[in-house]
Amino acid sequence: MLRLAVFVGLVALCVASSPLDHCCSHEDRDIIQQQWKVLSRDAQSTKVKLAFGRLVLTKLAEVKPEVKELLKRVNIDHPESPEFGAYSMRIFSSLDLIINLLQDPEALDALLDTMADKGSSSAYTGLKPDHFQAFAEILNRGLRKVLDDYNSMSWKACFRGIFQKLSSKLHS
Fold first, then answer.
1. Domains delineated in the chain
2. Phi-psi label, residue 24: left if phi above 0, alpha if psi -120 to 50, beta otherwise
3. If you write DSSP's letter for every residue of 27-77 in order, what string do you get?
């Protein structure tokens, strides 16, 4: 009975209000930030992030074909276009900002609120919570390939709450 009570208590802590409360430990945040730095360590990092961003977004459109319609305005049909490249960089710059704010939960929470509001705006009509889930899965698979010491447990512990917060104001 005590084990059940402890388990239920841990689950309750992991469903706390902030995306980083309890399940995303300080150690998890450190691991993510250290691993992310690998993608930004040299002069070629922008090219790496651009290619990675294009790949993740085109894979998302393959897995969730309705996303292609949402990304027509950024020329997804031509992934090498400047418009799609710029959009890919914007997405990965946002991801970079989120990762850089992991050690400041209050600022991160405010940022995620702002991003969730923007995601629910009319410019993103059709964006759904399951698109974030698919994005997270594709990102997870991609990071596993580009980071030598990828720690999926830390990334999942932190980004589960982050993606939930980002998609919290969307309509299913």
1. 26-166 (1.10.490.10)
2. beta
3. HHHHHHHHHHHGGGSSTTHHHHHHHHHHHHHHHHHHHSTHHHHHTGGGTTT
b vs e for 34-62, b when ≥16 Cβ sit within 10 Å of the residue's Cβ?
Answer: ebbebbeeeeeeeebbbebbbbbbbbbbe
Task: Output the six-digit token pair for 32.
Answer: 């993510």
Burial of 123 (0-12, 13-18, 19+ CB in 10 A): exposed
Residue 140, exposed/middle/buried by CB under 10 A (0-12, 13-18, 19+)? middle
As given in the structure block, the two tokens for residue 100 are: 């850089």
Per-residue pLDDT of the chain (172 residues; tens, 9 = 90+): 444 333 334 444 444 445 555 589 999 999 999 999 988 777 677 888 889 899 999 999 999 999 999 899 999 999 999 999 999 999 999 999 999 999 999 999 999 999 988 876 655 677 888 998 999 999 999 999 988 899 999 999 999 999 999 988 887 6
With beta carbons less than 8 A apart as the criterion, state whether 98 and 111 touch.
yes
* pTM, entire model: 0.82
Distance CA 46, CA 94 (A): 14
